[in-house]
Hints:
By secondary structure, the chain is an all-alpha fold. The protein contains 13 helices and no strands. Helix 1 (3-17) crosses helix 5, helix 7 (188-201) runs antiparallel to helix 9 and helix 11 (304-317) runs antiparallel to helix 13. The protein is globular, with a radius of gyration of 22 Å.
Amino acid sequence: MSKNVRSIIAALLLFLILPAVRADAAGSGYLLPDSSYAYITADEVAGWPSQALCYARNEIYARNGKTFESAELQQYFDSFYWYHGIYSPDQFTDSMLNVYETANIQTLLEIERSQGEYLLDQPGYSSDAVAPFEEDGGYEAGAESSAALLQGADSSAADPYYVDPNSYIFPDSADRLLTEDEISRLSLQELCYAENEIYARHGLIFSSTELSDYFNAKNWYWGTVDASAWSDSLMNQTEAQNAALLRSEEGARGGYVTDAAGYSYAGIGSYTSGGSMDVSQSDYLFYDSQLRYLTDSDLAGMSIRDLCYARNEIYARRGYIFQSEELRQYFGSKPWYQPTVPADSFSESVFNEFESANITLLKSHEYAIDPNGYQLY
């Protein structure tokens, strides 16, 4: 099956099966989507009210995981799928910002002050006046891409590497143990698909036409492992336990028969924690690698693969779109990862001093284990 055909099927499936995530939420994207890797000019925000300038300035902090003392700002950013506040105002320092972000905050603040600084948390505050300045992104952009494909638009116009967390039944089944309570919500078909989703992440080629067509429509799936070559050793312990739990529950309900006449994908949902997924420190190898210098003792005993992943985690935080299938799958399963910057547009100048130093340290440890480094697939 060609990738063009797969792209069309992906669009159809996204249109048919994606849950209505954030349909009633206040916003869908960013005010200034490139404020972390390009300088903002006065012309770009000409005519913006002070409130929008204030929110855009604080959006830069929000993208770096800061939580806010202002109830108004916290409420606003909590409504966005991309926001994951993990640093308290006391933990956050401006040293976490890169040169673009630092300059853009100052530019926006100066423009805001020139027309009257916006006062936060006034009685009866509302973000309605800011909404017209938001740009589409993430879930909403994915929906628009699907519609464009359905109308015959060139599929290359959509970002081929963006991985929507809602294209998984469980986007984090490789990183945490599922519970009996949450899988009890799944239909028999979803139980079967959720188990096979774990195998699909590792490239299993399915003999079932139903499963093959379903996973071929996912832009994160690349069938590379023939069933005869499959080994459960390809899964980590968490995945193995989750697969066993899902299989047990499916078997207890009588089992799902694939390729039965009249099967449909319409009932397959995504069981994320809603449009704004919970993110914790455990979702990172080093959640604070942009906040402090890592040390040799921090890295002691890490595998060559984890060293490579930790190094690329710093790029992933900055929205880097990976070309490696392995990294796309790994970071695509992380609720915090939002790929926004193509490799040919990415500049390492977006890194702050901690990130740059930590990349160098991680790389030195990785290449000390093997002069060729970890070999990605």
